[in-house]
Amino acid sequence: MQNETNWLAKELARDCRTVEDIQEKLNDLFKDTIQHVFEAEIDNHLGYKKHDNEGDHSGNSLGRKSLLFGNLLLKLD
């Protein structure tokens, strides 16, 4: 696990020049992680994956979603 953590830290820091760059990268990483967790959770809850034919005509919303964590607004795809 430590090797993966070190690799991820190096990858994130590669293009960063300022503290704001680091914050932006971390926000993107957090957003993507939350997105994957929610997708797995909803797939499990519904019993089928996104875009699966099994979900046709189910009435699920096609609109965009967003979450607010303190001052951080995450727009989910």
Write up this protein.
The chain is an alpha+beta fold and 77 residues long. It has one domain (2-76). It contains 2 helices and 2 strands, in the order H-H-E-E. The longest helix is centred in the middle third of the chain and has 28 residues, at 19-46. It is extended. The model has no long low-confidence stretch (mean pLDDT 80). This is IS256 family transposase.
In short:
The protein has 77 residues and is α+β, with helices and mostly antiparallel strands. The protein is built from 2 helices and 2 strands, in the order H-H-E-E.
**Biggest pleated sheet:** 2 strands, antiparallel
Percent of sequence in beta strands: 5-15%
Classification by helices and strands:
alpha+beta
Helix amount: 40-55%
Strand order of the largest sheet: 1-2
Number of domains: 1
Order of helices and strands: HHEE
Protein name: IS256 family transposase
Using brief descriptors, characterize the structure shown.
77 residues, alpha+beta, two-stranded antiparallel ribbon, 2 helices, 13% strand, IS256 family transposase
Task: Please give the structural blueprint.
Layout (H helix, E strand, L loop, with lengths): L1 H12 L5 H28 L18 E5 L2 E5 L1
